[in-house]
Amino acid sequence: MNQPYHVYVVDAERSSREALRSYLETHGLRVTTMDGAAELLRRMHRARPDLIVLDMALPGTSGLQACQKLRAEGDRVPVIFLSARDEEVDRVLGLEIGGDDVLGKPCSPRELLARVHAVLRRALVPPGLPMLAMAPVTIGRHEFDRATRCLRCGERLHVLSTVEYAVLAELVSNPGVAISRERLLAASHSRAEGLMLRAVDVAVMRLRKRVEPEPGQPRYIQTIRGHGYMFVPATEADGTAAPRREARPLPGPLAQRSRRGMPTGALASPSMNTV
User: Fold this and answer.
1) Is the pLDDT of residue 168 over 70?
2) Model pTM?
């Protein structure tokens, strides 16, 4: 029988963390509460949870700093931030630093539960079950290992954030197909807001810096203007670059249809490759 998911709730406000603990446990989760980042980081070396609910503004070491430290150590544990400040810059920073979702405080326990399940569906397999073996995907000089959520280049290994992983996994699973930003968002987050759409663009820019020989002129992760992005793998014929095709102007409806069904190897024009 599978064990319940284990969630850490880290919040300096006792009433808040106990209310969340009670609700999450009522709905089948195992919950451990703590009041600071120092305790969280100590516990992470003894028993890793399936997910962390983490207040951004903890006293001493903040939640943001704790998450940054975990990501720097290569820890991919999913993190949902709680933020008392309803400001765009805080939410964007939380996602850029490696968080998987951001929820305002005070939060609805019911909404938090939905977010927890959404993040777990994206990030994990059921407890006790092995992760399915998936062949790595070659992207230039890099290999993207979907099973370990890593990019490898020679001996160098980079652990992707959940947003970066979700975006890249969706793209490489559909080579030559233009994927909308909304669809990439759905693979990465639980709600489609303008702010979160920009988080997809940020993830793409970070991925390009990793895998593209010239990030300003991307070869593998192409931009489809007004729509989204497309992964264009190298072909056996050229080894490192697929041949470019001259695009012919198409009337509006045909152009829209063409974007959704571009064949592998077809490239967007250079003007389409900026985020």
Assistant:
1) yes
2) 0.51
